[in-house]
Amino acid sequence: MTETASNPTETRRGAGKGLKIERVFSTEGVHPYDEINWERRDVVQTNWKTGETVFEQLGVEFPDFWSLNASTIVTTKYFRGAVGSPERETGLRQLVDRVVKTYTKAGIENGYFASAADAEVFEHELTWLLVHQYFSFNSPVWFNVGTASPQQVSACFILSVDDSMDSILNWYKEEGFIFKGGSGAGLNLSRIRSSKELLSSGGTASGPVSFMRGADASAGTIKSGGATRRAAKMVVLDVDHPDIEEFVETKWREEDKIRALRDAGFDMDLGGKDITSVQYQNANNSVRVNDEFMRAVEEGREFGLRSRKDGSVIETVDARSLFRKISEAAWACADPGLQYDDTINDWHTNPETGRITASNPCSEYMSLDNSSCNLASLNLMKFLREDDTFDAALFTRAVELIITAMDISICFADFPTEPIGATTRDYRQLGIGYANLGALLMAMGLGYDSEGGRAMAATITSLMTGTSYRRSAELADVVGPYAGYARNAEAHQRVMRKHQAANDAVRPLHLNDTAVHKAATDEWAKVVELGKTNGFRNAQASVLAPTGTIGFMMDCDTTGIEPDFSLVKFKKLVGGGSMQIVNQTVPRALKKLGYDAEKIEAIVDYIGEHGHVVDAPGLKPEHYEVFDTAMGERSLKPMGHVKMMAACQPFLSGAISKTVNLPESATVEEIEQIYLESWRLGLKATAIYRDNCKVGQPLADGGGKAKKDAADAAEAAAAATKVVEKVVEKVVYAPTRKRLPKSRQARTTSFTVAGAEGYMTSGAHDDNTLGEIFLKLGKQGSTLAGVMDAFSIAVSIGLQYGVPLETYVSKFTNLRFEPAGLTDDPDVRMAQSIMDYVFRRLALDYLSFDERSALGIYSAEERQRHLETGSYEPVEETGNASELLETVPVAKAADAEVELVEAEDADLLAGAPSVEPEAKVAKTTAELLEKLTGTAVDSPLCMTCGTKMRPAGSCYVCEGCGSTSGCS
């Protein structure tokens, strides 16, 4: 695509040289905008619960091929200027021009282009790629570039802290400023002396875990850019630190505290008023393990914990016991993850400057302390030809242009601290990556968890990074290598040879990945050759980031390295409304696999109804793997995710933002195996998440998809109802039955819990106190229906003999068994069981506000009122809000004895009406998947708009408004 023009009379570094930019994507003589059909759209966002308009901008201009969702998210997130003011951006052209023209201007001023004509081609090419959704810069670029704000372009930061109070307090300050700007940061605390070592004054050191408390409180106060979501941060501690066990247990013990406080009646929802009393919740924790420790685990040896002052061993531990504790903590609360220190530093291009000790919050950026990285991601589906082959040549041209633009941005970028600015300007770390890998593999007829899928992903990743470093070497010839290159030249070139060797080790399996692999091989040969002569402009080139919000901007079906989330999705329509559609990748994949139009139509219809391909008419079982997804009937095995990361890791400068999700039934041994295999396969970092391991999110697998045996269910129920009860003297009395009048008021409530449908009819006395209930679940005559009938009679008799409804509520709420998960009731968003839901609903219907307050049960309206006014007390109506969990205390429980049910009381159930529950209305793809499968998607609700988020890398993204859970 390019060549270098030089002027031999110039001797100043880079002077007189410039890149010749070849026109590839745009058309000569025609501006990219003039090739597009533009249309005006009204962007209106409403609260899906109340119908209230929360954002409105009319007549915004976008290309007609951009989806409504993409244009909505870009308008609400990235357009600058106050809404309604003349300064407000009104279309995509203004946004793209603001960014691209800033990049082009900086490129001209810093000598990147051979001529003004080349600068113009660069501007047109970059514009064309952006408006056609071939790639996107990370969010800070769209927020800041070309505005009056500081020109911050980086989303990823790594800080540094030393063993001194000045450094620790400076850490708090620097982290706070980064959070205030809406970004996140990571750091390693291992330089801080342990609580087992002495201070110079003779006292005992506090240890790093104690200082984590202050930083956690700061992050919880500042949050992120003033938003409601928590700040994003990573805290790392080396495995040989004497306080490592305390570090491992921090979030584990706090999770136990959350459960105890929840059961005692405190509001421990994510965002609840009492969750702030729990520590260490604003960071991801990772243990930095080395090869010595991992080999000691394999061999069952002792491992030494070392003094921070002189490196001497001050304590020995059993390596397997410590590894087991790490895995148990991860099983219990998802933290800590592991970072593999020797692997990370073996691929480090700048070891003479310093070791890599930490990462950004999502673990994809790993580099020097006090550094930052700006990211950009390509949309892989844009490079898939009509014949379903990958266009390696076009991909190469796009990568070299994008990496050029990313390097230019460092010339004008602002940074939150001067040390970060100095390191970034001296080492110029970049993070090019991609999105839509899962969709690409499916469209090509390749299973995500297959040798063919991994080979294709590996060759694409190799080609991307090889092209990036080749362009970096060309840029070094034009504007000079990075300032720290000279002292690290040998190490940098060694890492380039390692990448080349890894590429040579890939074994292509078909013609398409063979062609991509050949292109990658050619690029790495140029990298090694040019690097010897020119050096490199950038210390790092590539990472695989979550691509949450920018993935929506590019209309991607899948984020980052992730597989397809589900085969169906929820699509908004221009003019209002929405529809459920099968991903368009599916029919393309079926055609690639050789199915005719009639069979494709039948299979797609089946998927639309069921959400999966199992037993789809005419679909061969050997093709099922192509349609395996992250969630649903045929969800990928955990090790399939690990193997895909391992295939791509050797071709990345940094690492991969991804969490390995495990079912609730996963064991500690399985987590140990994932951590060990990740190390053996050469990953730089691994994080896991076991369903339902945290209280502060709506977790749980419902619908009977993964059933437990009776012993497991009994154990779970016992754990859920365990409380500390005050011992009281039992009072014996003779109860009197208060029968209901022959004609009484009743209400019928239809409901679903994790996809299980049922209805409840309740009858009341004349004073509106509850006197009977009928529960209908399962088919008439089934065991379940019979058990529910018997339970209804028992509760009804108890109520009529004077057992207070509050007693039933306190006993049956928090009782946990399947099905458990999301409900269709806005007042009770989550239920831990059918019983949990029923008695919450009865409390809301029949108990007074004061009685419910004592039990911690509030309606959605009351919870929203509390968020707005600080009080649950009934006042003027203020609307509804989505909540993540319902939590109630188990308190003032009392036992009561009632007579055995009389035969004549069986007529309590006679004549119960048959009511069909209302269908649950999906608002996002995640909720649509739950509706189809009856399985709760393990994601939080969006704190901005209340809809269900979905996983994106190691965080979550809302497809309704584009918000993320902490990672930009």
UniProtKB/TrEMBL annotation:
One of its GO terms (molecular function) is nucleotide binding. Keywords: Cobalamin, Cobalt, Disulfide bond, DNA synthesis, Nucleotide-binding, Oxidoreductase. Belongs to the ribonucleoside diphosphate reductase class-2 family. Residues 154-689 form the Ribonucleotide reductase large subunit C-terminal domain. It comes from the Bacteria. Residues 42-133 form the Ribonucleotide reductase class II vitamin B12-dependent N-terminal domain. Its EC number is 1.17.4.1. It catalyses: a 2'-deoxyribonucleoside 5'-diphosphate + [thioredoxin]-disulfide + H2O = a ribonucleoside 5'-diphosphate + [thioredoxin]-dithiol. PANTHER family: RIBONUCLEOSIDE-DIPHOSPHATE REDUCTASE, VITAMIN B12-DEPENDENT RIBONUCLEOTIDE REDUCTASE. Residues 741-845 form the TSCPD domain. One of its GO terms (biological process) is DNA biosynthetic process. CDD domains: RNR_II_dimer. InterPro entries: RdRp_reductase_class-2, RNR_2_N, RNR_lg_C, RNR_NrdJ/NrdZ, TSCPD_dom. It is an enzyme of class 1 (oxidoreductase). Catalyzes the reduction of ribonucleotides to deoxyribonucleotides. May function to provide a pool of deoxyribonucleotide precursors for DNA repair during oxygen limitation and/or for immediate growth after restoration of oxygen. The keyword Nucleotide-binding applies. The keyword S-adenosyl-L-methionine does not apply. Its cofactor is adenosylcob(III)alamin. This is Vitamin B12-dependent ribonucleotide reductase.
